[in-house]
Each structure stands twice: as structure tokens, then as C-alpha cells.
Specification:
The chain has six helices and ten strands, in the order αααβββββαβββββαα. The protein has 248 residues and is α+β, with helices and mostly antiparallel strands. Strands 1-8-4-5-6-7-3-2 form an eight-stranded mixed beta sheet, with no helix packed on it. It has a two-stranded antiparallel sheet with strand order 9-10. The longest helix has 26 residues.
């Protein structure tokens, strides 16, 4: 994880060094959420690219291994609630595998048209030993599926486990207001009277190596917020340099 307080104070220090501007905790939280989502989603595109490129044998310089390490922390599993359709975990980002946990059998995913064709023949129709599932969407093209209908119908409650990549939790720099009206950071997990927001602070869930990348990207967006093109240009240039170095 990357400490949210360290990131916020670094961003403020850079912005205030030459009295260029200031971003509030609420603005920072919104920018931090956007930046974390962008970096997280980029992992999958980078992994796709690196899989087509020969890699070094050095374990510390192998880019595929390093990317997989960053993604691995988001891999998890959970038993689906409900029964036909089974409700997928609310924090699902990308579904990996559904398992019929009674016999540890992987459930094969098919689309609705494929299921109709498969189900027509007794030889290919889904069974306990060869189960199938069809994903059901949420109605918005960009959203992850919210449920899965599993066949045969004899597979029921608490019998389906989802193995998936979860979405990172939104970072939050929570605070209390001091006697002079100043913002005072509320450490994650520390019980204090009425932090703002009430959920308390939440660190960035990205790999610690992403701290510089997070700061640069937040600085770029901060330049837009405070209308300082020099901040935007400087941060964007540094980000481009890092990306170019990673692709060499």
C-alpha cells in the first residue's frame, strides 16, 4: 500500500513551494480515486503488451513478474450469495473463475446464444460434472457483471465460489478540524471523534513502487484544478519520461 498522508503532503509541498496553489482534502480524494483507477486499469494493458515481448531471466527485472506481483494483491475469492442467478461480489472488477464448490469443479462460462445451442443436445447439456454459467450485466456497458445464472438448476445456495480481481478501494485522506481551523490527519484505523468523512482514512491499495507515479499524476490533475499550465506540463513530461523508460 501507499500511505495516503504521505502522498497528500508531498503534493501540497510541491504546489505550495512557489505559492502556486492549494487543493482541499475533498479535491485530493477525488483526484486520488481517479489516478488510482487509471494506474490499476493500466496494469492489464501493460501485461498484455509484455506477454508478447521476450523477458529477461533476472527475477527482479522481469516485467511480467513485476506486473503480476502488482495485480496479485487484488486477487481474491468469495462465495456467491443467492441462487440462480447467483449474486457476484460487489467489489468485482474482473471475473476469473466460478467454482462449483461441492466437487471443486470449474464452471465453464458461455454466452446466452451458446447456452441455447449446448442445451439442445442431451450429450452437451450442462450437468453437475460439467456445469455452465451465463453472466448477467448491470445494464451499463462499462460496469462489471452483477450476477451469473448457473446450469443445471440443482446447483444452489452457497455452492458457487467466485475467484476474481477486486476493484481497489477509493483512497481517502480523512481529517478533523483543529482549534485554529486547520485540517488534522486522521490515521487509518485510529478511533477519533467524528473524522471527515466518517469512514476514516484509507490508503492507496497500489504497490509501494507506484508512489512516485501516483504523486505525479495527482500533480498533473491538480494543475488543471488550480489552472496552472506549468504544473500540468511539468508533471506530464515526467510521466511520459517514466513511461518511455518502462517500454525500452
Amino acid at each position: 500500500m501507499v500511505n495516503v498522508d504521505t502522498v497528500y503532503k508531498t503534493v501540497l509541498y510541491i504546489l505550495n513551494k512557489e505559492q502556486r496553489g492549494y487543493i482541499t482534502p475533498d479535491e485530493f480524494n477525488k483526484l486520488g480515486t481517479q489516478v488510482q483507477r487509471e494506474i490499476f486499469e493500466q496494469y492489464f494493458e501493460e501485461l498484455n503488451q509484455q506477454l508478447r515481448i521476450p523477458q529477461t531471466d533476472n527475477e527482479y527485472a522481469n516485467r511480467i513478474k513485476n506486473l503480476e506481483e502488482k495485480i496479485d494483491v487484488f486477487k481474491t475469492n468469495q462465495t456467491c450469495t443467492g441462487a440462480n442467478p447467483f449474486i457476484l461480489p460487489s467489489n468485482l472488477h474482473r471475473l476469473g473463475t466460478l467454482i462449483y464448490n461441492v466437487n471443486s469443479k470449474e464452471i465453464q462460462g458461455v454466452n446466452r446464444n451458446e447456452y441455447f445451442l449446448i442445451n439442445k443436445s442431451p450429450l452437451t447439456a450442462p450437468t453437475i460434472s460439467n456445469p455452465l454459467y451465463v453472466l448477467e450485466g448491470t445494464g451499463t456497458p462499462s460496469a462489471a457483471p452483477s450476477s451469473a445464472t448457473v446450469f443445471p438448476a440443482s446447483i444452489t445456495t452457497n455452492q458457487v465460489d467466485a475467484y476474481y480481481i477486486k476493484a481497489p478501494e477509493n483512497p481517502i485522506w480523512a481529517y478533523t478540524v483543529g482549534s485554529l481551523g486547520q485540517y488534522e490527519f486522521a490515521d487509518p484505523g485510529v478511533i477519533i471523534p467524528v473524522p471527515i468523512p466518517a469512514t476514516g482514512s484509507i490508503n492507496f491499495e497500489l504497490h509501494p513502487s507506484e508512489q512516485t507515479n501516483i504523486i505525479l499524476n495527482i500533480l498533473m490533475y491538480s494543475g488543471v484544478v488550480i489552472r496552472d499550465p506549468q504544473i500540468v506540463q511539468t508533471a506530464a513530461t515526467m510521466i511520459q519520461q517514466d513511461e518511455a523508460l518502462e517500454k525500452q
